[in-house]
Amino acid sequence: MGRPRKAGVNRQSYCHYLLSSQINYTNTYYAEHVETVSHDMVNRYLRRDKLTAGTVWKYVKDSIERHEEGFLVFDDTVLDKSHSREIEVAHWQYSGNAHNVIQGIGLVNCIYINPETNNYWVIDYRIYNKDSDGKTKLEHVKDMLNNVVKHKRLPFKTVLMDTWYATNKLMLHIHDLNKYFYCPIRKNRMARTAGTKEYYKKVCDFEWTEEELQFGKAIRLREMPEKLMTKLFRVPISDRRTDHVITNDPSQHCVNDTRHVCAMRWMIEQFHRELKQLTGIEQCQCRKQRIQRNHIACSMLVWFKLKNLAKEAKTTAYQIKHNLLNNYMGRQMKLNYFA
């Protein structure tokens, strides 16, 4: 008998590998556990395929629970590549997770939230690589926002962003799309009370009445047009932290409701944790940009599959992933290595 015929590596098999593996996500580890697959075969597949954010959208779009008052949330994360200095798309950049500048791949993400069910889906992402496309993270967010409105045509009412994205241009663009934004702003942002000619001052220097603490303060940010009516809220996050949250939502008159809306933004933090801890998205050490891009897209697809399985089983993505070890642990505990 001749050698067994080697099965090919494709998108489905690679995603299945990322979903099944627990600690090691390298091409070598894949080849070591499939007799008919070699390291070179995995590498060739990752160089050949061309997966993009559009590929992920095609998989996700039919499962989205659309809602007229849906939320879009934008935020970025850095995929840690500190142990590999020659990856083409990796650059030195600040990581909030590491609280330091590290070598990594910047990923700007957009998730869609149904406010009735609190379910969420990744609907778009961009790899931050200014050397190749010349775009800033803010420009990537604007592109994704326009894509949702003009092409994906998802219904939504509100955009949530972190402090980094709370720029005059982006807030005004959201307002011109007839959407609402809620975002914390830096304490040194210059503003003045709306309808007055007082000097601009830092928002942290504003004096607040008891009524304003409860119902917000109408303000105008410096260099913003008068047509953009905004309201500022002091939102307690913890005993040691209070955010200054700005919104153009004219119906918002309550600090507690503002806190509830802003809490939706933390779902993207949950998405980032699950993506990094369950899919091996940071573990690919291949140097070529195309391979990294394909690995990232496959990791997104794996996250989406895990969330669907968790929803069907009425459990969490973590339990779905970790339960794959249950049979192994059961067999091992029946053995007695120390007899």
What does this structure look like?
- The protein is of the alpha+beta class and 339 residues long.
- Among the domains are: 11-49 and 288-333, no CATH class; 177-264, no CATH class.
- It is built from 13 helices and eleven strands.
- Strand 9 and strand 10 (230-238) form a beta hairpin.
- The longest helix is centred in the C-terminal third of the chain and has 25 residues, at 289-313.
- The radius of gyration is 23 Å and the shape is elongated.
- It starts with 10 loop residues before the first helix and ends in a 6-residue tail after the last helix.
- Residues 1-5 have low confidence and may be disordered.
Total of DSSP H or I helical runs spanning 4+ residues: 13
Extract low-pLDDT stretches: 1-5
Share in helix:
25-40%
Range of strand content = 15-25%
Run of helices and strands = HHHHEEEEHHEHEEEHEEEHHHHH
What's the mean pLDDT score?
Answer: 92
Shape category: elongated
Could you give the distance between the termini?
42 Å
Q: Give Rg in angstroms.
A: 23 Å
What is the number of strand segments? Answer: 11
Characterize the main sheet.
Answer: 11 strands, mixed
Which secondary-structure class do the elements indicate?
A: alpha+beta
